[in-house]
Amino acid sequence: MKQIDTTSHHHRPGQTVIPLPPIHRQGAFGHPDTGIGTATITTRGWRASLHPDQDIILPEEAVTLPGLFRERLHRSPNAIAYRQFDRLSATWKSFTWKQTAREVGCWQEALKREGLKRGDTVAIMLNNRHGWVVMDQAALGLGLVVVSLYADDRPRNVAHILRDSGAKVLLIRDIAIWNRIGSALVPLKRLKRVICRRRSGERPDDGRFTYLSHWVAPGYHPMVHQESGPDDLATLIYTSGTTGRPKGVMLSHRNLLSNAYGGVLKVTVFPGDRFLSFLPLSHALERTAGYYLPMMAGAEVTYARSVATLAEDILLARPTLLISVPRIYERIHGRLEERLADGSPVARWLFRLTECVGWRQMRHQQGKGPWMPILLLWNLMKKLVADKVLERLG
User: Fold this and answer.
1) CA-based nearest residue to 67, from 260, 290, 275
2) What pTM was estimated for this model as a whole?
3) Where are the alpha helices (DSSP H) in the chain?
4) pLDDT tens digits, 22-81
């Protein structure tokens, strides 16, 4: 992340933190001293830069991440927010913003029963799914700090991150995860509760362990929003640990909101858009561009079942936006090249011509390139070649 407030009063003694320099600017949403997360234009200027059909929540309207969720709930209560595959019913389930808020309220009630104080840390060790968002919003709304862990991280890394962050609550996927990491958690005295989302197998003999179905408060509980400031610590995201032990990066609400808003200024996102989420939410890229950005724009997010089923999930979800790393696109391109190698010279020539025209067409549509006569071929190339490729990508 490009903006880290290393002077936050939430820094814990002995905690490993990557110090990054703040950006020294001042503006409508900027801190007068540090300039972190600042903008040099006013709200009117922000609005003027957006498409009239967009429904973007501005950073200064949201103020914090739970404020962002609360504002989206106010604007789009009955719109579909999330979809995911339910293994028990073998169907895709959808959740509106209102349904999500009801779950957040119930999870917040359960978190309050744990006796947590403002600034305490809650860890999430789940695959991408609706429950990841619910726990994140429940914790943030209570003024807690969220630590994200990779769902299949090594026990040693998990124990180090939980110890370093001082996590008091951990949410895991299933009993298999507990069986793999449970012994590494024994020395962690500050960890008071481990919540297992999926109930299966024999319950471990550890007083901290409970199943989500037992832990979540039944009935209706209104969503709580304890006021936080934009510069309060929101999350700790740890490095991969490839160059030593993972180090925690401290990110404020302002950091994440400003980065998400920077995304919507570069990529036009509408309420009718659909994201397909498959990169881990524990990573800063997916957390910002695949979670907070769609919420800011009012778009829908569908969670892929796995990377292995990604090709099939793309066809099922038919996303309009895909957040990915280059390797995924390289695989897609590689498969296309393999098919072209087995095809006729005419097919290869048409594909290369479509690539040439399509690239210039995209540049022109984005205002980054001029109109040129070759663009007259686009409609024909789209019908002959591009539509067939796009059909396989949703």
Assistant:
1) 260
2) 0.82
3) 43-48, 59-62, 65-75, 97-113, 130-141, 155-165, 175-185, 212-215, 253-266, 284-287, 293-297, 310-317, 326-341, 345-365, 378-381, 387-392
4) 322 223 333 333 233 333 334 445 555 688 889 999 999 999 999 999 999 999 999 999
